[in-house]
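User: New here, please read:
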Amino acid sequence: MRPVTLSNEEIRRYSRHLILPEFGMEAQRKLKCGSVLLIGTGGLGSPLALYLAAAGVGHIGLVDFDVVDESNLQRQVVHGTSTLGVRKTESAKMRLRDLNPYIDIATYETQITSENAFDLMRPYDIIVDGTDNFPTRYLTNDASVMLGKPNVYGSIFRFEGQVTVFSPEDGGPCYRCLYPEPPPPGLVPSCAEGGVLGVLPGVIGTIQATEAIKLLAGIGETLIGRLILYDALTMRFRELKLRRNPDCPVCGEHPTITELIDYQQFCGITPEEAQRDTSIEITPIEVAEWLRRDDSPFLLDVREANEWEIGHLPGAVRISVNELAERLHELDSAVAMVVYCRSGVRSARAVEQLRQAGFRKVKNLAGGILRWSDEVDPSMPKY
């Protein structure tokens, strides 16, 4: 096999790498030969993809099945206004091709599942987890362990992030060593519900990109066995030591999970239609018509105060879903009530809580104020 060489154009492009004594030509050639599969091209995936491409990683795979939305652009910097509505993989590919024409980019417009994970991951040297949900994190972890590939992990929420490298092959732990069980469904809000500081994924994603580059180039000390915690509000980094769990069901001495499982079921997530109780739902149009009658309902907004400031239904009263249990005494169970939030998820939890407390005349606004904006009042801001 002929040794990989760098063209004169590539030498000019990567010259600031090449003059680093700890890096040089050999490390750059390793990057050119190397391959990274990036699962997710959103908040974390954006800086990851940009810096891996700019650094000269020769083969980059992008896995995503979403399209670019306007609310993405506050943090997903690989995309732009010109690619709104475009598949994220295609949007990212166009940007990366413009950034570095000397690399290969493969796109997979699909959701990674137990059925396709091995096929997607097997051709790549390193797996990078840029996802935002627990089923995919556990799937990515298990498949990486079973294939013997490093998993560069990162996660973000509001103002905080964490990053490490899971690699049992190199003596480190896996994701299950750190988090043996997923949290109960709904306990941890998504970024769409809880929010995220736009620059936060830039910090965490750039650290992930740094780790992937070091692994491929064979330089420095990686985060295997170390977890970095970052708080953007206080601008503090903390480091925790991680150890491999010998009893881990995936990477332990006697693994009990030896094939990929149903990760939706493992995380307690049932299909959306199965978990929805449509008998307690009411559509925005039905609510709008009801509000015009003499027997109009009481409107309860269960979002946070900052969301209320963005926009709310006239006449509504706000009690956060997190405060509801302590403030039930403020509500009248004899009055018909419609509960709403941004998308209908938190309000569904609130309705269930109210019903358990004896409230019977209570309905959940299906789709929340997002659907209200679509079907009733377009002037209602969407976020």
Remarks:
- DSSP finds 16 helices and 13 strands in the chain.
- The CA atoms of residues 373 and 380 lie 5 Å apart.
